[in-house]
Each structure stands twice: as structure tokens, then as C-alpha cells.
Model the fold of this input.
Amino acid sequence: MGDFASKAGKLATEEINAAGGVLGRQLETIVDDETNPGVGVQKATKMIQQDKVDFLLGTVSSAVALAIMDVAERYQKIFFNTGSNSDQIAARSATTTPSPPRRRIPSTSRPSAAIW
Done:
């Protein structure tokens, strides 16, 4: 997402948490700036499996965005593409946006987002 967008995301997280969070839960952000698709897949997978992120946000590289779309679909997570643009991304976004299963998240868990 770039340095300014990353800082804005952190500031928004702080403001949301200061106001009580989301549904009474505090937010946490995990920031990464990977531009290699293979490494991006590894990091996104780790964030989902180990860090237990609820959604992924960002990317400045279309190649990384396409790779992250596959990871998000595999794990049924939401991916907000904020900066990458290609015909492949537009076509996939229009036709293959997955519907993640609805599930109740215990109030003791801390929602987190991975920001590229």
C-alpha cells in the first residue's frame, strides 16, 4: 500500500480502538510490503494460519495481488485490493469474488488485518 497508506491504516486502527473498537473488539494491524508474489503468498499464508488475520488489505504489485487473491480464496478470507490494477485482476474480481462463510468470532479474539 505504500508508506503513507500504511501509516493512515495504523492511525485509523488507533482511532477505532480508542473509540471502543469494532463490536467492542480491538483491532490489530500487521504490515508487510512484499513485492515478490511467491514470498507474498508465503507471508499471506502465515498471516492467515499463524497470526489468524480476518482479512487482507492492500498490495501495490498486480502480480502480488493476483497471488494473494488465490490465498484469500483458498482460506475463504476477504482481500481488499487497494492499489493494484490489471485486466486480470479486474476480470477475476468481477467473476470470482468468493463469499466467505459466516461465522461467529468469540469476543475474546482480536480481529486483525494484514496490510501490504
